[in-house]
Design goal:
The chain has 141 residues and is mainly alpha-helical. It contains five helices and no strands. Helix 4 runs antiparallel to helix 5. The longest helix has 26 residues.
Length: 141
């Protein structure tokens, strides 16, 4: 295996560790709030190049996703503190689901053979869609 192959394998292992850590955070709480906040913080210290299938994202887009994720994290947390802000939770959930579906689509088109990140993103998208449908349709705010 050449140096580039080793670097790529190390990068994938680091990413899988991050995904597992985020998944454990999500499983230890009753929502995806801590995991999603952690994902935004993770983006500060890791570039889009650390996830092979997302390397097509321009750096400016990657940086703007950090801001969007932090805003969405607040949108998931603030309704617990103030009932008047309850509409923010399903809106944030829709934004998060859209981002996760974008990441999954980019992963499919990248030709990457390790699908673990895509499965993680799809699980997060399903949880967010469930939250949004529940708040918009089943029990409107």
């Amino acid at each position: 295996m050449n140096k580039n192959g080793i670097d790529r394998t190390i990068s994938q292992i680091k990413y899988i560790k991050e995904v597992n850590y985020e998944y454990s955070l999500m499983g230890s709480s009753d929502s995806a709030r801590p995991a999603y906040y952690h994902g935004a913080i993770w983006k500060f210290s890791n570039s889009e190049q650390s996830v092979p299938s997302l390397s097509a994202l321009p750096h400016g887009v990657w940086q703007s996703l950090i801001v969007i994720e932090l805003i969405c994290s607040l949108g998931l947390i603030l309704p617990a503190l103030n009932k008047q802000l309850a509409i923010l939770a399903p809106i944030a959930a829709v934004c998060i689901a859209a981002e996760m579906l974008l990441f999954s689509g980019m992963h499919l088109f990248s030709g990457e053979t390790n699908n673990a990140p895509m499965f993680y993103w799809l699980v997060i998208a399903v949880v967010c869609v469930f939250l949004a449908v529940g708040r918009f349709v089943l029990k409107p705010l």
